Amino acid sequence: MIKSDLGNLRTHLETLSLEVKNVMEMRDELKSKLKEVGNVIPKMSEAILNLRNEVSEGKKEMNLHTKNLLKALSPETVKNMVRNELQTYDADKTGRTDYALESSGETATAPRDFSIWGLTDLEDEKPFSFGTFTYDNTGPPLQYFEIQVEYWILLLLINVFVIRI
C-alpha cells in the first residue's frame, strides 16, 4: 500500500513538474510577445510625432520614413497581429494552437446570427440596437463585427440575442 501511494505521489509530482514547465514556457513566450509590443510602441509614438509635426508645419506630403511607419503599423496590421495572438492563446488557453480543434471545424458552438443591444439599466424598455450580425462558420474562429449604428450615451448593460445557431 505504501509503495502504491508512493507511486501515485511520484506520478502526480511528474505531472505537476510538466505543468510547471509548461507555465514557465508560456511565461517566457508572453515575455517575448510583450517585448515585441514594447518595440512597436516607440515606432508608433515616432510616427504620431512625425504626423503632428507635418500637420502643424502644413506639409502636404509625408516623408518616406513616416509613410513606411504608418504602413507597417496600419490598423489592419495591428488587428491581424492581435487576432493571431488571441487565436493562438484562445485555442486551449495554453498559448499553443490547437490544430486538432481547428482542423475538425469545431466552430459549431458559435451562434450564426445574433444581435447586440445596449440597455441603460435592467428595466430599460427601449434598448438600443447596435445591429444584427452573422458569424461565418467557414471563416477564422475569431471574427470582428463593426457596429452598424453609433450610440454615445452611457449603457450599463450589453445584451447579445442569439437569433440562429
Layout of strands and helices, then pairs:
Layout: H1 2-57, H2 64-72, H3 75-90, H4 99-103, E1 113-119, E2 128-134, E3 157-164
Antiparallel strand pairs: 1-2, 1-3
Can you walk me through this structure?
Helices cover 52% and strands 13% of the residues. It has 165 residues and is an alpha+beta fold. It folds into 2 domains: 102 residues, no CATH class; 52 residues, no CATH class. The chain has a 3-stranded antiparallel β-sheet with strand order 2-1-3, with no helix packed on it. A hairpin with an 8-residue loop joins β1 and β2. The protein is flat, with a radius of gyration of 24 Å. The N and C termini lie far apart (52 Å).
Percent range of helical residues: 40-55%
Largest sheet: 3 strands, antiparallel
Major beta sheet, strand line-up: 2-1-3
Give the ordered list of helices and strands: HHHHEEE
Overall 3D shape: flat
Number of domains: 2
Low-confidence stretches: none
**Strand portion:** 5-15%
Q: How many H/I helical runs?
A: 4
Structural class: alpha+beta
Per DSSP E runs of 2 or more residues, the count of β-strands stands at 3
Give the overall average pLDDT.
Answer: 76
- The value of Rg in angstroms is 24 Å
Distance between the termini: 52 Å
